[in-house]
Amino acid sequence: MKTHPFQHLGRTFIAGSEKTLYLPDQDTLLAADIHLGKAETFQHFGLAVPSGAARVDLQRLADAVQHFDAKRLIILGDLVHAAEGVTQDLIQLFANFRPKLADELILIRGNHDRALERAPDSWRMEVVPEVLPLGDLLLRHHPEPAKDFYVLAGHVHPVVLLKDGRDALRLPCFHFTDNLGYLPAFSSMAGGFAIQPEPGTQTIVTAGDDLVPLDAEHEVSTKRKQTGPHGKDTSLEKLNKA
Amino acid sequence: MSYHEILQPIERWFQQKGWTPQDFQRETWTAFLDGHSGLVQVPTGAGKTYAAYMGPLAELMALDRSNDDLSIVFLTPLRATSRDIEAALRRPIEDLDLPFTVESRTGDTSSYRKAKQKKQMPNVLVTTPESLSLLLTHKEAYAWFCRLRAVIVDEWHELMHSKRGIQTELVLARLRGYASDMRTWALSATLGNPEEAARAAVGELDKPVMIRAALPRPLHIETLLPESVDSFPWAGHLGLHLLPKLLDWLNPELSTLIFTNTRSQAERWYQALRFSRPEWEDRLGLHHGSIDREERTRIEEGLNNGNLSLVVCTASLDLGVDFAPVARVVQIGSAKGVARLLQRAGRSGHQPGKAAHLLYVPTHALELLEIQGIRRAIAQGLMEDRPALIKPYDVLSQHLVTCALGDGFEPGEMFLELQTTRAYATLLSDEFRAVLAFIEHGGDTLQAYPQFHKVKQEDGRYVVQDQRTAKLHRFNIGTITADASLKVAYVNGPVIGHVEERFVAKLKRGDIFVFAGKRLEFVRMKQMTAQVRAASRKGSLTPHWPGGRMPISALLAKVLREALYHHQDHPERVLIQPILEAQARLSHVPKDSELLMEIFTGREGRHLFVFPFEGARVHEGLAALLAVRLGRHQPTTFAISANDYGFELLAPKDYPYLDLLGPNLFSPEDLEEDIRAGMNLSELAKRAFRDIAQISGLVLQGYPGSPKTGKQLQMSSGLLYDVFENHDPHHLLKRQAEREVLEDQLEQTRLVTTLKRLWQQSHVVKEVSRPTPFGFPLVIERLSARLSYESLKERIERLKQSWGKK
Hints:
The structure holds 2 protein chains of 2 kinds. Chain A is α/β, with parallel strands linked by helices. Helix content of chain A is 16%, strand content 33%. Chain A has 4 helices and 18 strands. Chain A starts with a strand and ends with a helix. In chain A, 53% of the residues are buried. By secondary structure, chain B is of the alpha/beta class. In chain B, the strands form 5 sheets. Chain B has a 7-stranded parallel β-sheet, with helices on both faces. Chain B has a 6-stranded parallel β-sheet with strand order 8-13-12-9-11-10, with helices on both faces. A 5-stranded mixed β-sheet of chain B has the order 17-16-20-19-18. In chain B, strand 10, helix 13 (293-305) and strand 11 form a beta-alpha-beta unit. Chain B is globular. The interface between A and B is large, with 58 and 68 residues.
C-alpha cells in the first residue's frame, strides 16, 4: 500500500491507496462506505452478482490497520449494504477478521446500517448513531459542515473523472474543502459521484495501488452533475443537505 | 372447399377497393392455405401486409366460426406503428362485416385494456416481440396461444440481425410448441441473404416458401451536384454547402422525407431549413430517436394527414411509415449501405409498380464516388446480407426465466426446442447447462452465489415460485432495446425527448443547446430529468450522440472501390475528376491491385495514412493492429484516427515508417493476439457488457414497489464487470461480452477478409508534402485519439494534462 501524507488547514493526514485515511495525532484509521454484503443483497433480490468482495475488502482493511499499527479504527458509516446481505456467513467472516481490525472499533452509523443498530457481540464494535468528535475534528457519515469543527465524512463516494477524447478514467478520491473532508468509498463494489475540484480544495485520487494528488488550479467549474452513489442524480450541495 | 372458394371473399374485397391482387399476394395466400410457412420479400410499399394477412383471414372465414380463439398474431418491431397496422387489419373485417376482433398489445396499451385481454384475447393481436414475450410469463400462455393459426412478423429485415430478432426466434419456437396449426410468415424488404432470414423466422424444422414480387420497382437516384467542385469540401459531414440548392429543389406542397445519418446532423439541417425558410415553419418537422414518442407520433400523423410536408429524420423513420407514402425522399450524405438507401428510396411514390425517387445530397467530395458505387450495386442487383447473431447467452437466459415463469419447462424438451431455432441450432449441451446454472444458481461457481435463488427445479421442471422474482422479471423484460438516457423536459412541463447522460453531464446551468429543433437553456438535473426552459439567447451546442457513426457496409465499400478504379461517365464522376487529379498529382490514385499509403511530416508529428476503403470500424481495428506491429519493431506512442476510407497513425517526427513498412505488417497471422495487444479489449467488453447485463437481468431498469429497495440494487454495469472479473472471471456472460466485442464491434470476420486483401495487394507508399484529398478528412476529423502501451499512472499523467480544459 502506498501512502501520501498531506497538510490541510494546518492538520496532518495520511491518505492510503487502499482508500483509508490515517490521523497520526490520534493514532486512528478511518474508512468509509464499506458496503459489506452488497453482492449477497443483490443475490437475495434475484440478481446474480458473485460474492467474494466482503473477504477481499476485510483483508484490505486488516492490512491497512496493520500497516499503520493503528490502535483505533473508525468506520464513517455504511459498513454493510443492507439487512438482506448481513447473512450468518458474513457475521462469522467479520468475527474471524475482528482480531486484526484494531483494539478499538467504532462504527458511526450510516444510512445503510439500519441492520446494525446493535452489532453482533462477536464483532466487538461500538456503534455511534450520528457524529463523533475527535479533537477538533468531527467524524460523521453525512457530509454536513459543523461549527467549530473540521468535518470528515463519507456517504458521497467521490470520484474524479479524467477524460481525453475517447479515453476516460473514473478514480475514487479524497477531496478536502475548507470545512469538509470527503473520504472515498472503501468498498471495491462502490460506484462514484464525480466531483469537480475548485481552487483552495485538495484532491488526491487513488489509482490501483497508487495515489496521485491533483492540483485544483484549473478552471473553476460549476459542473457538478453525475450519477450519485445511490444512482440518483443530485448535486453535491444537495447531498450535503440530505 | 377449394382454395378458389375460400379466397373468393378476399378477391371480392380487393375488387370493392378497386385493387387487383398481385401475383405474389395470391401466391402467399395459397401457400398459407397449403400449410406452409415462409418469407415474403418484396420492396417496401408493395403490399406485403395483405399478402400475409388475407390467407389466414380467409381461412378463419372458411372455418365459419365466430369464436374466442386468438388466431392471428401480427408482430411489429415498432410499437408506434401498431395503431396503423391495427387499422389496416381491421379494414377488411369491417368492410366484410366479420365477427372478428383486432386489438393491439404493446408497452403503450393501458393496463385496463391489458387486464381485459388476459380474460379475453382478441382474434387478431398486434404486438411487439417484448409484449409477446411478456405474455409467455403467464401461466395461461398455453391456453391463449394453443389455437394460433398464423404469426406474421413484419419488418423482419430490421429485427432479425438484432437481439430482439433472437428473442423473436425463441418466442416463435415456444408458440410452435403450443399450436400445431401455427404457420409463420415473415415480411421483409429486399436483403442479401433471404434464405437465412426465412430460416430464422420459420425455424429449422420447416422448409420456408420464398415469395418475391415479380417486378422490382424502378428507382431513380438523382444527385444534387455542386456547381463546381473547387469550393466543395474534401471532408466534413454537415454538407450545408448544398443547402441553397436543396432549398430551391424542395417544395412544401410535396411531402418529403429528408434522411440524415446522425441525430446531430438532423438537428442542424432542421435548424438550417427553419432559419432559411421561416415561412415553411408550419410544414416542417423533425423526427429522430431521441425525440419524445408523443412528438414523434405527432410528426408521423402530420405526415399522414398532410399537415406536415418536410420532415428531417434519421433511421428513426426507416420503419413505420408503411401507411404514409411520401412524394419525395432526400438522403443527406452517405447512406452507409445499399439496402438502406433502397429502403429509404422505397418510401417515395409508394404505389406498387411506380418508380421510387431519391435525391442524394453529398456532403463532401468522396461521397460523390460512393453514390457511383451505389448505382453500380443497384444495377447489378447487389444487396447487403443481414447476418443474424449466433446464440447469445443473455437473450437465452432471459427467455428461459420467461418460460420458467409461464408454465415451466423440462430441460431436455427445452434443449430440443432451442435446437429448432436458427439462433441456437448449434447450442452445445455444455453451453445450455451453463445458462441453466446461471438462472438457477447465478453461475457455475456455486459457492459464489449463496443467496441467489431465481429459478428452481421442481419435479424435473424449471419453475419460478418467488413472486418477487416474477414481478422483477416482468418489470425488466422490455429492456432489450432500452439505452441509458435521461429525459429532457421543461421545468414543470412536458417531456421533450431523451438524451444520453454523457451529453447532459457536460452541461452547466445556463448553457444553451439545440434539441428537438428547439433552443433550450439547461436549468438543472432532477431525478433523471434534465430540466430546461426555452432559451432567449443564442447558442450553438448541438448534442452529439454516441453510436451515431455507422461504418459503410462491406458491399458499399466494395462498390466504392470499384467506382474509384473504374472510370465511368456519370456526372458525379466528371465533377470529382479534378479532386482525383489533385490526388494523383500530390500522391497517387490506387488501382484495384494496390494499397495506397502516404507518409507526411507535419507540425504534430509524422503521419502514416493507409487507405483500404473498408469502413471506419475495420479501419480502427487495422490501425490498432498496425500500431502493435510497428511498435514491436520501434516502440512509440501512436495517436490513431479512422474514417470510412482509411486510417491514420500519428507518431513523433522522427518515426521511421519507411524502414518498417514491409508486407508482413498486414499478415493475417496472429491477428487475434495482436488485436488483443493493441486494443483495450476489457474496456470495450465492459461497454458491450452493459447490454448483456440488462438483458440477462443482472442490472435493473427499475424496481417495482419500494424505491428504497430499488436504490440498494443499483450498480453500474462497468462496476459489475469488474466484480465478475475479480470474483467469477469465467462467467458465461463475461465471455459473451468479449465475444461480442471481437465479432460485432471489431467485425473480426470482415477484418480478416480485409487483411487478406491488403496482404496480397501491392503497396504503394508515397511521401507527400501536404495532406492529400484522401488524407485531409482524417487530419481534420480526428475520430479517436487512443494511445497504446501505457501504464495506469502514465494514463493519469496524460489525462491530467487535458483535465479541466473541456
